[in-house]
Amino acid sequence: MKQLKQYRWYIMAPLLLVIVYIGVNRFNTYRISTTSFSPSIVASSNSSVYGTTTSSELNTWKTDLIISGQNICRNIKPYLLILILTIPKHSERRSVIRDTWTRVNEWPNFKVKITVKHVFLFGTYADNKETNQVLAENDKYSDIVVGNFVDSYRNLTLKVLTGLYWVRRYCPGAKFVAKIDDDIFVNIPLLYNYLEAIPQLTWKILGHLVMNGHPDRAGKYSVSHKSYPFNFYPDYTTGAMYIAKPETFFALLDVAPRASLIDMEDVCITGILAKLANVSHLAYSRGMYLPTKPAAPCEFVNNTKLLSKDYSANNVRETWKLIKEDRSKCLQKKMVMTKK
């Protein structure tokens, strides 16, 4: 009897080890952190591999363009190409962007001759009034690209991918490409100095870096557990503005058709797709951008801020006027603070 018990133990021991091994690995699958985010483990509930490239395409996002913007970069290789996400009702924001900080040659004391081009990105609309507005605006300014997807907050990932596809097709000669929202003010001279000082930007994305970010499961920024089963996001840069070289963004485009996309644009583009494409990040210098509150206008005059979000059209106009006409007010204020 004793020999029989020992024999049973010899049979059961390997089976127990296999069961423990499977259990540990399954447990670890759902505890992936940002430092161990692995695009090669988890299969989603619809049996498509999540977060990894596959031999067949998972996504059906369309690359055809309804308004192509094919002449925006014709015979031009801009130093900086800016992709701006916007919607029809934000026409005043677009107008003020055209008239202020994107006019690179009108910045005081900035003598470098560079070309900056901008593109406003749209999707499609069921409302004919919105569609006609976009068409009329493009007839006037010729700075609009419309992709073949329904324009909505949950389709921002498709919007950015459409913009990057447009860059590859119609403006691949740009030195740098920036994606921004339409409530942003950018300090172009400071950005130029910044980009010139970091030649190591190859295969990196520059932006406001978020580490150990986690998905919200409710509210405006919610991502379902089915769409994203992990507890943490890979490192990513927030969507206010991120910048890279065209070839870096093209690497993200190459993996996108074979990766499951989530509708958190900045996480998906600069986090998940970047991870799959082996693209890393560079963070803005400390204090150059504060995501929690808009910058004061004098911070742009004094070159202490690179960009700011949550700027209304009036904020942009007032800041631009201060930069061009009333710089002395900020400089005097700076001298007083220095004396104190």
Structure, described:
This protein has helices at residues 2-29, 91-99, 128-141, 156-170, 188-196, 246-255, 265-276, 297-301, 313-325, 327-339; strands spanning 65-67, 80-85, 116-124, 144-150, 176-181, 185-186, 204-210, 236-244, 280-283, 307-308. An eight-stranded mixed β-sheet has the order 1-4-3-2-5-8-7-9, sandwiched between helices. The protein has a domain at 65-290: Alpha-Beta Complex (Spore Coat Polysaccharide Biosynthesis Protein SpsA, Chain A), CATH 3.90.550.50. It has 340 residues and is of the alpha/beta class. Strand 2, helix 2 and strand 3 (116-124) form a beta-alpha-beta unit. 32% of the residues are buried.
Describe the secondary-structure layout.
Elements: H1 2-29, E1 65-67, E2 80-85, H2 91-99, E3 116-124, H3 128-141, E4 144-150, H4 156-170, E5 176-181, E6 185-186, H5 188-196, E7 204-210, E8 236-244, H6 246-255, H7 265-276, E9 280-283, H8 297-301, E10 307-308, H9 313-325, H10 327-339
Parallel strand pairs: 2-3, 2-5, 3-4, 7-9
Antiparallel strand pairs: 1-4, 5-8, 6-10, 7-8
Question: Can you describe this structure in just a few lines?
Answer:
This protein has 340 residues and is of the alpha/beta class. The protein is 38% helix and 16% strand.
Work out the helicity level. 25-40%
Number of helices: 10
CATH fold field value of the domain at 65-290: Spore Coat Polysaccharide Biosynthesis Protein SpsA, Chain A
Strand content is: 15-25%
